[in-house]
Structure formats: structure tokens, C-alpha cells
Design a protein that fits this description.
Elements (H helix, E strand, L loop, with lengths): L1 E6 L29 E5 L4 E4 L5 H5 L9 E3 L5 H4 L14 E5 L1 H10 L15 E5 L6 E3 L2 E10 L2 E8 L2 E3 L19 E5 L13 H11 L3 E5 L8 H7 L4 E3 L5 E3 L2
């Protein structure tokens, strides 16, 4: 199983519009971060996590083939704003999109023309599934288990897929949800910046503490803003088993 980081940035991306900090001026491609999204792939299956506003741009660099499932973490624009750009993939058939009930309701309000009884001509053909936490979802040979983390006060989905746990926009996680993450060999989790604290997102110290609690062999940090610093400098400060991911990075999940 292979994971491609399509985007590793926070809601405004990096560079941020109007900012002249050293990160936003950096010419290192590792410091250019589109909004958070990922592809999970095997030879037989392709799963997309989130369709942010940069989805079209992200997919132009990827082979064009069927998406078997789209997993939505939550309704916020930086994770759901590009759902209309699923249109080209509908030539393979309806695209199955899975979300919690609140996110599914939000999608129907955000892009109602995709779900109307008489669909707008050219709108993507989406089969939207509102799914509960903890119930395993089978996507071909892959089993996906959604679990709940807290984005501030908003409950959102993280996903466990075999040895991988993928979490974005978490501030806290309830004790009863930890069992769905523990034992993961590869952890992807959000880390906004080193400081200060944020009401709805982990900072780097929070993410490191969480990674130690999970006990993953390798942890990749995502959903990072320009305040986190230069990619190369950040990774020199982090433990070897915890690293800052970058857009376009491909890792093997074993």
C-alpha cells in the first residue's frame, strides 16, 4: 500500500497570500504546501482522503484512473471545497463519497446541484454515503475504519486503514477512540506550528506527545502553516521517527 501526500498545508496554504516571511519566500518546493489531501493506493484500489480547493491542481500530477472511494474528514472548505472537481472521474462511473452525517448534510447544502433529483447537466455523479464511526467500510481489498477526533468542539473523522492511521485537524481525542489508532505502524497527524497554542489544532509538541502515545514506527506531520518554519530546518529539530511531510511525497505503508 502506498500513500501520496497531495497536500500538507493548512487552510490558507503556503505561501500565504500577502506574506513575505522566509517560508513564504522560500524557493524550496518542500516549503510549498497545498491544502491537505492524500491518496491511498494499491494495484487494485485507489482511495482519496478529502477534496480540498486545490484538488484539481493536485490530481493533474497523478495518473488518471478510477477513484474507488473518497473519504471526507469534515466539511470545512479546505477539505471539501474541491468536490465538484470529481467530475472527470465520473467517466468511470459514480464516485462513492463517505462522510459522517454532519459532513454529508453540509455537502448537500454546499453543492446542492450535485444531489438534486434532476441533476444539473455536467455536475459530478456522486453517490454520497453518510456512515457512522467505528463501522468497518470495505473498499475492494482494503478495510477502512472511521473514528472520531475533536477539531476544537467539532467532531470529525480520522481513518484507520490497516497499518495506517490518518488524522487531520485534531486538537484532542477521547480516550475511547484511542484504541482505533493504537497499533498503527504509520501515523499521519496534524501539527500546525511550534507555538503558540491553537484552540482547534495541535501544535508540534502536541503531535509528538500523541505519536508517543500511539507508538507508531513512523509519524508524518501534515496540515502545517508557514509559522512552522522551513521544511529542512524543522526536520532537523524533530526526532528521526517523526518528520514533516511534503507535497508530492510518496511513502510505502507496510
Amino acid at each position: 500500500m502506498q500513500l501520496t501526500f497531495l497536500g500538507t498545508g493548512t487552510s490558507v496554504g503556503v505561501p500565504a497570500i500577502g506574506c513575505t516571511c522566509k517560508v513564504c519566500r522560500s524557493q524550496d518546493q518542500h516549503d510549498k504546501r497545498l491544502r491537505c489531501s492524500a491518496l491511498i493506493e494499491t494495484e487494485a484500489t485507489r482511495i482519496l482522503i478529502d477534496t480540498g480547493p486545490d484538488f484539481r491542481q493536485q490530481m493533474l500530477s497523478q495518473p488518471f484512473r478510477k477513484i474507488d472511494a473518497v473519504l471526507m474528514t469534515h466539511i470545512h472548505y479546505d477539505h471539501a471545497g474541491g468536490i465538484d472537481d470529481l467530475r472527470p472521474f465520473c467517466q468511470f462511473g459514480e464516485v462513492n463519497v463517505y462522510a459522517n452525517e454532519g459532513t454529508a448534510h453540509g455537502l448537500m447544502q454546499t453543492v446542492p446541484y450535485c444531489f438534486a433529483e434532476h441533476r444539473y447537466p455536467g455536475a459530478p455523479s456522486i453517490n454520497l454515503h453518510a456512515i457512522p464511526a467505528h463501522r468497518p467500510l470495505q473498499v475492494n481489498e482494503l478495510t477502512v475504519v472511521p473514528f472520531v477526533v475533536n477539531h476544537g468542539k467539532l467532531p470529525i473523522f480520522g481513518f484507520r486503514i490497516g497499518p495506517l492511521a490518518y488524522i487531520t485537524d485534531m486538537k484532542t481525542i477521547d480516550d475511547e477512540e484511542l484504541s482505533y489508532v493504537q497499533g498503527a505502524q504509520t501515523l499521519v497527524v496534524n501539527a500546525l506550528r511550534f507555538a503558540p497554542d491553537h484552540h482547534a489544532h495541535q501544535n508540534v509538541d502536541d503531535a509528538i506527545r500523541f505519536a508517543r502515545k500511539v507508538g507508531a514506527r513512523k509519524t508524518w506531520l501534515v496540515h502545517s502553516c508557514h509559522d512552522i518554519g522551513l521544511h529542512e530546518e524543522v526536520n532537523r529539530q524533530l526526532p528521526p521517527d517523526i518528520q514533516l511531510a511534503y507535497d508530492g511525497q510518496v511513502i510505502e505503508i507496510v
